[in-house]
Amino acid sequence: MSSPQGRRVLVVLPAWNEAESLPAVLAEIRTHLPGVSVLVVNDGSSDGTSAVARGSDVEVLDLPFNLGVGGAMRAGFRYALAEGFDAVVQVDADGQHDPRDVPLLVEGLDRSDVVIGARFAERGEYEVRGPRRWAMKVLAGVLSRLARTRLTDTTSGFRAAGPRAIRLFAVHYPAEYLGDTIESLVIAVRSGLTVEQVGVEMRARQAGRPSQRPFKAAIYLLRACLALGISLTRRRQILVPTEVTA
Amino acid sequence: MNGHLFALACAVIALLFMFELLRRRRLREKYAVLWMVVAVVVLVSVVFPQLLEQVSSLVGITVPINLVFFSGLLVLLVVCVQLSAEISTLEHESQTLAEESALLRNRVERLERATGAAPGPPPVADPDVSGRSTG
Lengths: 246, 135
Prior knowledge:
The structure holds 2 protein chains of 2 kinds.
Chain A: E1 9-15, H1 22-32, E2 37-43, H2 49-54, E3 59-63, H3 68-83, E4 87-90, H4 102-108, E5 114-118, H5 130-147, E6 159-161, H6 163-171, H7 179-190, E7 195-199, H8 214-233, H9 241-245
Parallel strand pairs in A: 1-2, 1-4, 2-3, 5-7
Antiparallel strand pairs in A: 4-6, 5-6
Chain B: H1 3-23, H2 29-47, H3 49-59, H4 64-115
């Protein structure tokens, strides 16, 4: 897609066993974002995700085994860097992100290096309760202060990265659990990139079920805080000159 | 059998075993060194038992055998941490390799499409690797 600013935009879909929901998502992207480049990163699926993606006339990266969202996205960023894209938009393959919001995120890249599609900002009827909600609030508070902007949904996987962020993430994108959402923001901010959020609507997943059991939510809270705590104490990543200007 | 002799034999066998593993390149030096140090320490304290007592009283341990237990646990802990660190490095390396192989496969496929060459076999995901959580 050539947006008004003439950016080359790549939509990256990390997909792990998403053969069921992928066709609908790809069709939707085709309808609402004509001409946009799409990359499906098949994260070691065992259900034919790769075949589905290959049948849809999009570029496919087949990871030989499962790396998690972080690893899939880093592969996507490396692809974007090698192919000279100016913007990478991460969209979930399970259909909870609306492709119609992609131009909104890309527009935000005029002002910031990373734009997060936030579920609670202004619109949408997405509802989370209990420990998971508290966790999100705590994370949002800390990261907002760090990024010097109001962030309400730091674990959203719906986000756009500009050229500077692509160069950073192609090298330093965390592969650990929750690293792809929380730690990547910390790395971005500490490397001097700017972050902002725009409000988007989230939908129910088209297939599969969300993980919101109380016990899992508590574990999630702990791991999220650990991930944040550790990444905050790390030395900051400095973009080496070649990464900035390459 | 004399307890001292038994300990001596164990230490010597351990040393020889480590040396042999190294010689056959079954074990890399960075992992073997620690075990050889352990074997040597055991050897020395078997030959000079009074050394163990002196060190114990030096660090304030009344019963010398407790020093042995303590150092034994400490060594095991260090080895475990070292192995965890090594595994983390390996995982990081295998991740990079996986990404690289996926990117290369994509590149080959695009070249095939561009030149009209016959496509290669489809990718085979490793079915034995159980998936880590993707979110």
